[in-house]
Amino acid sequence: xxxxxxxxxxxxxxxxxxxxxxxxxxxxxxxxxxxxxxxxxxxxxxxxxxxxxxxxxxxxxxxxxxxxxxxxxxxxxxxxxxxxxxxxxxxxxxxxxxxxxxxxxxxxxxxxxxxxxxxxxxxxxxxxxxxxxxxxxxxxxxxxxxxxxxxxxxxxxxxxxxxxxxxxxxxxxxxxxxxxxxxxxxxxxxxxxxxxxxxxxxxxxxxxxxxxxxxxxxxxxxxxxxxxxxxxxxxxxxxxxxxxxxxxxxxxxxxxxxxxxxxxxxxxxxxxxxxxxxxxxxxxxxxxxxxxxxxxxxxxxxxxxxxxxxxxxxxxxxxxxxxxxxxxxxxxxxxxxxxxxxxxxxxxxxxxxxxxxxxxxxxxxxxxxxxxxxxxxxxxxxxxxxxxxxxxxxxxxxxxxxxxxxxxxxxxxxxxxxxxxxxxxxxxxxxxxxxxxxxxxxx
Amino acid sequence: xxxxxxxxxxxxxxxxxxxxxxxxxxxxxxxxxxxxxxxxxxxxxxxxxxxxxxxxxxxxxxxxxxxxxxxxxxxxxxxxxxxxxxxxxxxxxxxxxxxxxxxxxxxxxxxxxxxxxxxxxxxxxxxxxxxxxxxxxxxxxxxxxxxxxxxxxxxxxxxxxxxxxxxxxxxxxxxxxxxxxxxxxxxxxxxxxxxxxxxxxxxxxxxxxxxxxxxxxxxxxxxxxxxxxxxxxxxxxxxxxxxxxxxxxxxxxxxxxxxxxxxxxxxxxxxxxxxxxxxxxxxxxxxxxxxxxxxxxxxxxx
Lengths: 443, 302
What we know:
Strand order of the largest sheet of chain A: 2-1-3-4
Strand order of the largest sheet of chain B: 1-2-5-4-3-6-7
Largest sheet of chain A: 4 strands, parallel
Low-confidence stretches of chain A: none
Strand content of chain A: 5-15%
Low-confidence stretches of chain B: none
CATH class of chain A: Alpha Beta
CATH class of the largest domain in chain B: Alpha Beta
Number of domains of chain B: 2
CATH topology of the largest domain in chain B: Nucleotidyltransferase, domain 5
Largest interface: A-B, 17 and 19 residues
CATH topology of chain A: Rossmann fold
Helix content of chain A: 40-55%
Radius of gyration of chain A: 21 Å
Shape of chain A: globular
CATH architecture of chain A: 3-Layer(aba) Sandwich
Order of helices and strands of chain B: EEEEEHEEHEEEHHHHEHH
Structural class of chain A: alpha/beta
Helix content of chain B: 25-40%
Number of helices of chain B: 8
Distance between the termini of chain B: 40 Å
Largest sheet of chain B: 7 strands, mixed
Radius of gyration of chain B: 19 Å
Oligomer: heterodimer
């Protein structure tokens, strides 16, 4: 009888021995990669901001933050994982729980996920399944519940597969966002998630608490925007440093992250004053768009761009593992419960530029974002990054290229997998693209 | 001309290594002598330019060690010229092994170099270059100065590349240099093999041979599939005339004819290297040597 209850719907049973072996070997190789990546980040910018030290520490997924989360859990706090940026983290914070995003960036975990789903599936998904199968991610392991938003097809099934392990709260996102009924449905979803969070944590989300949580993330967005403002002029920070700092937000303590990001900005402002640039101001300026890139292993593309010969520097991006995390604040008029929930609903639905939506204008929100960033950050060229299996971003490329061609902004489609094997070939592609941008500036 | 090939070789994949010096040219100490070394995945090429004009070149197989291949092929190109390494004012490395060219002053990707080299070989009217190398295929669009304006590269799969052709030469026991001609020796063009992956295409080819297909027919079916794949890449980058093909496969008439057929366009004819013309296989090395000259002059100014 009991056996029937625990029978898994998707994943095969692994012995504890196998789980430990696989998880240890991936963890060991990944920590090597993290150390190597950070070392190279330091080497490529001799003058790397000192305040990056904090984010380097946060980047160790098996370090300080893991301990804090385990401690918090022991003291009775709940950890709520989420798979897409659409999860309203203000509600989690208001219930005194800890939000952590749990998409996997481990290359080797995809091979384990391959036992459950075919290789044609997006590697972000396969890797997350694999990470869960061998209990690899401290954040995923400690999640008491996971919010799964039904965005792309692969995400839709990922949540279902993870029900084999953890309580999953599914949220339906309308695939058309600019209609009244879409927003109404979404706000209903937000309200029902609020109930789930309250039930799990035993904490009521009061008006006061929610307001405090919203103000907390608003401050984080403010710090983020300050950082982005600094990336509009001559480069004072390498793109992959900025991207790492931004990404740690998805597992760090929000208040502490904000404080440290402001410290980073203080240091960068001094550098602007002293004209202390990270790279020569005529270095080609790159924007990255497309599929998300997750720490720790999948830092391949930012590294290739900023270690290339000729070198490029990333000044902006439009990916949901970086700038999109923090670009838009929740905008509240009246601090009533109803207004706050509506504002949260609007912020998560309307401000998103995700390719999972369909619109008759051809995702104009994303196009406008790209055009604005290209102008503001004086971008020379765009890298359109897609992992194989990421259907929606692959399809929208045609649209984005058409628009960028009209603006005379070169765009390069860089497709890859969760693997290190293709780095040599990708290096040629990235370098040829940067040579092309350099030639436009220089020869 | 020096050659290295055993006439009765049973290594059907083995193509000819050779070296050439333009005899009527001479050099003086004050000349700007530059070199381009293109270490590809299958072939290594080196070119020497005197004041931006071609003087000598060498082509040989890339060994397992990139730095060694680079040294060997550059020595090969300088054979019988009285030149030595010290006479070279500037060297640019390119190709897959570009970072492992020990004597290079700078590395530049083969994409920029092939566009530049094609511009040198065929002139400023070239707009689209298809480089079919040993392990990858690149479709490049360039302007009248040979500067890259956009490009596409195949993924890590070797289908349609020189390496794939070598495997077929071995399978069908036809010398690699004859493979193009043989593939054209069919009354009617057969449908292309359905799978472009080299490993699967080989299995499919064995099946066709068993069904009683002639070698020519099988080769035609494979070559056609590869030509379609390459044409798709060209179409995606945007085909604009004039169109040329560089790299080892530019010598494969079966590929060239079929690409022209699929794209409904004529390529600019390749110079015939056997009768003293330039070799489209060294386009990348020529481009690298031209960049070397430009960079040398730029450094002199600063």
